[in-house]
Write a structure and sequence with these properties.
Chain lengths: 294, 292
């Protein structure tokens, strides 16, 4: 007997199924809240204290506001780092790990779209990472005493979600790219940590690259870094939450950044779909789809 | 003894293969350089932001001394990050990524020494990264180093004792991953974060509140960073930075303290390793996979 399944329902179920593993897995192993939520706060606290240390003993008009903004920048950077790390290690690298564990061939045989699988992975990842991001944000407010000035809540929400879509779209694209690689995948993810923390301005405003102290190459780095959605998303969030404190380090205005982010989100999702098909075909042709430990 | 040496030697060789043989040597060299240099540049950019906002003279003697202090501390922190991550990740990598823990575990080696051997590779790579970072700073960022020939033995002794202490701390914490799920990354971000924050890596300890200073003084690595700076940085620059609160400790005292710390952490790591290994075997977690 042949059963006809609605493709939309099938893909939604597949996406939920993949997300479910992460959500339920996270609940069954609650220790991750301490390891992935609380412990990384200490690293962020160190960067907060760098600014506190710099400003120690310096007084004058506007100094405390500037320090509040810089500490807030670090906290927001910490929130974005949580998502970036999740994109690297739980999205981009995931198909590679699935290959290593022998699950990938099962996914490939299942009748759903691969995009549904990646989408489910992203939803599960966003759920897990949101907890860490929320802990970081709360620590920023209650431990580091950051005062946010929320001027345009709708714009803020729009920027945040478009950034996440673009970021995870990029992760989905990387996932297909990593499908072709062997152990290079792990090292590539490792390489995309500190250098991306730098070019995306996770701990300082990206506009600092344009300062004359940095040299003429700084602007080129900032423009190049804008390909990573976290760069513009973070800059826009900082402008929206600390209006007036970022003028010395203005890069682009919020509306332009939001527009670019929308374009990036669409481009990355389209590229993810195309690269997934292409690299899957290439991996099958080269016999790498099920090869492990190489 | 022979078993331990054999375990160490082959684990270090395996670690080196895992770290390096995935690509061509030239690409591996670039890869090894980019990460530490990017880390150093993050600090440069943070300092630029501070200098602009705080209207500080970037090239004043105080400004240069402060930047020198931060840069040298950050360069040597590469040892801390690499060594700790190198030890933390061995159990999880073998158990979940490569799924080879069962084979390594039943082979006639010491698994404790095997972890130390794997970490040794990371220490070697960290040494390279520290040298590159310092060289880059001297060449392009006006970093000043000043070490006399007579200070070399003390410097090497401090370096070795610091590395041994770090390996002891690393194995103690790595033992926890016998029982936990795939949390190595959180551990690797958080524990070095404690040291980054409380050991005076980037700012003199006197910047911290009293309780933070007390905590910092209880961590041996604080003394390690202090002694490294005392040996490497010009005295004129040290005089221009805020008090590290450890000026009263002499070189010999600090080295002795590091020796005692390394010994204590060695015994602690052996004890914890045995306990966690026993608990993991008893609860059937020795070969679990949690990579959902």
């Amino acid at each position: 007997m042949t059963t006809t399944v609605n493709p939309l329902s099938l893909n939604l179920r597949a996406a939920w199924g993949r997300a479910y593993v992460r959500i339920v897995g996270a609940n069954r192993e609650p220790s991750w809240i301490f390891f992935d939520g609380i412990l990384p706060l200490l690293g962020i606290a160190a960067y907060v204290f760098i600014y506190e240390g710099f400003f120690r003993g310096i007084t004058g008009p506007g100094v405390s506001e500037a320090l509040n903004a810089l500490v807030g920048f670090v906290v927001l950077g910490g929130v974005m780092i949580a998502f970036w790390m999740n994109v690297l290690w739980s999205m981009a690298s995931q198909l590679y790990w699935e290959k290593e564990m022998g699950n990938l061939q099962l996914y490939m045989m299942a009748p759903m779209s691969r995009m549904a699988l990646l989408g489910g992975m992203a939803i599960g990842g966003i759920f897990m990472t949101s907890v860490r991001a929320l802990v970081t944000l709360l620590a920023g407010i209650y431990v580091f005493g950051v005062h946010f000035q929320l001027a345009s809540p709708f714009l803020l929400i729009a920027v945040f979600f478009v950034t996440l879509i673009a970021l995870y779209g990029m992760g989905m694209m990387f996932a297909s790219l990593y499908l072709l690689w062997g152990r290079e995948a792990y090292h590539m993810s490792s390489l995309l940590e500190e250098p991306i923390f730098l070019v995306s301005g996770f701990y300082f405003p990206i506009g600092a690259f344009q300062r004359p102290e940095i040299g003429t190459w700084g602007r080129a780095v900032a423009i190049g870094g804008s390909v990573i959605p976290a760069t513009l998303g973070l800059d826009a969030l900082r402008q929206l939450l600390f209006p007036g404190s970022t003028q010395q380090f203005q890069f682009l205005d919020v509306q332009t950044e939001l527009m670019i982010l929308v374009v990036l989100a669409v481009v990355f999702l389209i590229l993810a779909r195309r690269t997934l098909r292409y690299f899957e075909m290439l991996a099958k042709r080269e016999g790498r789809l099920t090869s492990r430990h190489q | 003894m022979d078993r331990h040496w054999r375990s160490f030697k082959w684990a270090a060789w395996l670690g080196w293969q895992i770290e390096s043989n995935w690509t061509e040597p030239w690409l591996f060299s670039i890869y090894s350089v980019i990460k530490p240099v990017a880390g150093a540049f993050i600090l440069v950019l943070m300092y630029v932001v501070f200098a602009v906002v705080g209207k500080m003279e970037f090239t004043s003697p105080q400004g240069l001394a402060r930047f020198n202090f931060i840069y040298v501390g950050n360069a040597f922190f590469i040892f801390v990050g690499n060594t700790l991550f190198g030890t933390f990740q061995v159990i999880q990598a073998d158990r979940e990524w490569y799924q080879t823990l069962r084979y390594v575990y039943i082979s006639p080696i010491s698994y404790y020494t095997y972890i130390v051997g794997r970490a040794a590779t990371k220490v070697a790579i960290a040494t390279f990264a520290v040298l590159i970072t310092l060289g880059f700073g001297v060449a392009f960022l006006n970093i000043q180093l000043d070490m006399g020939l007579e200070e070399v033995p003390a410097f090497l002794a401090a370096l070795v004792l610091g590395a041994l202490t770090l390996v002891g701390i690393g194995v103690s914490l790595a033992s926890l991953s016998f029982l936990t799920a795939r949390h190595v990354r959180g551990l690797a971000e958080g524990v070095p974060g404690i040291f980054y924050l409380f050991c005076g890596v980037l700012f003199p300890l006197s910047v911290l509140p009293d309780w933070g200073q007390a905590l910092g003084k209880a961590i041996p690595l604080t003394y390690w960073f202090d002694i490294i700076r005392r040996i490497l940085m010009p005295q004129s620059m040290l005089d221009l930075t805020a008090s590290t609160t450890m000026e009263s400790f002499g070189l010999g005292e600090v080295l002795l303290l590091l020796l005692v710390s390394a010994t204590l952490f060695f015994f602690l790591s052996v004890g914890l390793f045995r306990l966690m290994e026993w608990l993991a075997r008893r609860s059937g977690k020795l070969d679990m996979t949690t990579a959902y």
